[in-house]
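Dear Dr. H.,

I hope your travels went smoothly. While you were away I took the liberty of generating a structure for the chain from your last submission, since the lab meeting agenda had it listed for discussion. I wanted you to have the full record in hand beforehand rather than looking at slides cold. The sequence, exactly as received, is reproduced here:
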Amino acid sequence: MGFVTTRGRSFYYEEQGEGQPILLIPPSGSTASTWGALPSDLARAGRVIAYDRRGYSRSGGEVIRSAAEHTRDAAAVLDALVARPTVLVGTSAAATIALDLAVRRPDLVHAVVVHEAAWRALRHPDASGLVVLARMQWLAWRGRYPEAAETLLRWVYAYRDGGSAWDAFPDQWRQTARENGRAVVADLKSTIGGYPSPQDLATISAPVVCTYGSRSRSYMRAITRSLAHAIPAASVREIGGAAHSVAFDAPGSFAQVIAEVIRVRAGGDNTALAAWKSRATCSATSSPSTGTATPSRPSPNAG
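The corresponding predicted structure, in token form, is as follows:
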């Protein structure tokens, strides 16, 4: 752990493992220290770097209201740490940053794994979500940012079969999100639309895996498939036992997907890579005893 200075800011980061660089870009309300077991799981596959984005916790600075600015920061951190080309990993709002980096700086990118990006999410309206967004905005207008963040994230991390990962998070994770409430609201506004554009996404040449959780609300499958359709080198995976907070719900399964990407890329087998890219959906079911992912054949009912 330490700080790296670039673009006029000292960014806090944590690092473990060796080999292929893997950058964990934290989602809204999260930092380098709220990934749970995922970094240690991934350290077996490469050099894992996690950092606090600008406007968050130890990196500090003004709240950023532009996904593109976060993208420039991520690129600068990678350059400063000489961690390239890297496997980019982003969930939720951070997925937008990872994809944008693959568009703007392909020289830095080895592969991309994104979980439940909010790309064009408003094209798939959910009644409960619209109510939550209105409540969050009402709280933000009144300067009650900790409550606004909690209101949003409890709903975002909910399971379609009841309950929310938010309520099971360690107390420190929830406190971190509340303390960065203003940044949480800014993240939502900058990543819930259609950025990057379909035209930009079509230029991504690195392999991309778009994942969604088996316990997520049903519209996340449609959003994820829509995103993957816009990226020529994209495939789709379902993560068994997970919802939006995949690093909390199924870290072993998510790590397995990322490690597989690294193995395929390292092997240089064009036939295997082509087959991997063309795979429409591959479910990853979590083993209760090991937490690892077991690829299975797509369901005939998968839509």
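Two observations you may find useful: The two ends are 43 Å apart (CA to CA). The chain has twelve helices and ten strands.

With kind regards,
E. W.
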